[in-house]
Amino acid sequence: MLDVLKRVFGMSEKKSGTVAKERLQVVLIHDRASISPEIMEKIKEEIIGVLSKYMNINRTEMEISLENDSDSVALVANIPVNSMRHAK
Amino acid sequence: MSQIIVITSGKGGVGKTTTTANIGVGLAMRGNKVALIDTDTGLRNLDLLLGLENRILYDLVDVTSGRVQYKKALVRHKKYENLYLLPTSQIKDKSAVNPEQLVKLCEEMKKEFDFIIIDCPAGIEQGFKTAIAAADTAIVVTMPEISAVRDADKIIGELGRADKENVKLIVNRIRPQMVEKGDMLDMGDIDEILSVACIGQIPDDEKVVVATNRGEPAITMSDSVAGQAYKNIVARLCGENVPFLKPQKEGFFARLKKLFGLL
Ligand SMILES: Nc1ncnc2c1ncn2[C@@H]1O[C@H](COP(=O)(O)OP(=O)(O)OP(=O)(O)O)[C@@H](O)[C@H]1O
Ligand SMILES: [Mg+2]
């Protein structure tokens, strides 16, 4: 009943143009975040390079990945530390 | 300084070839010497839109493979004598021309022409890579429709990776009544999503079909709204500052509401 009323007053349904915009904004976050395996490997090597200045990390067990949520993308890294280096 | 412009889109059928033909004729009508290169090898169409299909002797593949000089393959337009078409092959496929060959050809043609406009095939494969290789400006054509905008975004990403810095957008086939009702992405939405400089908004216009039937691009018709929008694009490409056409065609109810002070 409420639905019918809302529709009569043009309130309930979002305009399809607005729906399209919202869907695009989300899908493009995912599209733009898709990174080729080669680039991912490069990112990994560079992170290792930076971290190794400060700590010994366990390369074989480290994992990094891009994780997609319904409306966001995060770079998630799990990097086990074997030992810390002495601060200079 | 001559300009090399590629007309591209990602998604097929959004109006690349129509845009190439109209911009080409428009630039030539202003006195520029213009060459149009069709790189949609295997699916040749630009010749039809220009009414030049019966005058083709050689094609792009004949030129890039070294069989003939490019000047022999050029087809001069009957009416707009500054306009030339380099048609592509209808029997070969996209692998018949590689990026280096097109770059070399354009370098040579640059000496003769003010504008070289390259009609790109749909997709992001080899044909696309070849078409964009020589260009210093890329015009991305899209439509106010979710999949066309998504594909445009992908193409814009690819152009960035290929170090093409001068990228412009044309939104084709806008239906003002639908935009007004909120049932079509509007220019503001598309700008916000793609954030690329827009140089044209073209209404959906039946005259484009009539123009294609006749082989005379809409820009030559005085009564075509799409033709007028293309004229404005051409002026902007020539460095003029032309305001955008107001695409809003007011419907009866909008006028009525306005009359009663509701809007
Ligand atoms: N503004 C417009 N109004 C109405 N029809 C249009 C408009 N622009 C293009 N069209 C029609 O859309 C169809 C596709 O246009 P066109 O061939 O230029 O697209 P394209 O991007 O080159 O396609 P392809 O990817 O196959 O090369 C044609 O039938 C054309 O007449
Ligand atoms: Mg085409």
Write the layout of secondary structure elements.
The complex is a heterodimer of chains A (88) and B (263).
Chain A: H1 2-8, H2 16-33, H3 37-52, E1 55-57, E2 63-68, E3 73-78, E4 81-84
Antiparallel strand pairs in A: 1-4, 2-3
Chain B: E1 3-8, H1 16-29, E2 34-38, H2 46-49, H3 60-64, H4 70-73, E3 75-76, E4 83-86, H5 99-109, E5 115-119, H6 126-133, E6 137-142, H7 146-161, E7 166-174, H8 176-181, H9 187-194, E8 197-203, H10 206-214, H11 225-237, H12 252-259
Parallel strand pairs in B: 1-5, 1-6, 2-4, 2-5, 6-7, 7-8
Antiparallel strand pairs in B: 3-4
Helix pairs in contact in B: 1-11, 5-6
Bound molecules: adenosine-5'-triphosphate and magnesium ion (MG).
Describe this structure in words.
The complex is a heterodimer of chains A (88) and B (263). Chain A is of the alpha+beta class and 88 residues long. Chain A has two domains: 1-34, no CATH class; 36-88, no CATH class. Chain A has three helices and four strands, in the order αααββββ. Chain A has helices at 2-8, 16-33, 37-52, and strands at 55-57, 63-68, 73-78, 81-84. In chain A, β2 (63-68) and β3 (73-78) form a beta hairpin. The model of chain A has no long low-confidence stretch (mean pLDDT 82). Chain B is an alpha/beta fold and 263 residues long. Chain B contains twelve helices and eight strands. Chain B has helices at 16-29, 46-49, 60-64, 70-73, 99-109, 126-133, 146-161, 176-181, 187-194, 206-214, 225-237, 252-259; strands at 3-8, 34-38, 75-76, 83-86, 115-119, 137-142, 166-174, 197-203. Chain B has an eight-stranded mixed sheet, with helices on both faces. In chain B, a hairpin with a 6-residue loop joins β3 and β4 (83-86). The longest helix of chain B has 16 residues, at 146-161. The termini of chain B are far apart. The mean pLDDT of chain B is 93. Chains A and B meet through α2 of A and α7, α8 and α9 of B. The structure holds adenosine-5'-triphosphate and magnesium ion. Residues 9, 12-18, 40, 45, 122, 172-173, 202, 204-205, 208-209, 212, 226 of chain B line the site of adenosine-5'-triphosphate (ATP).
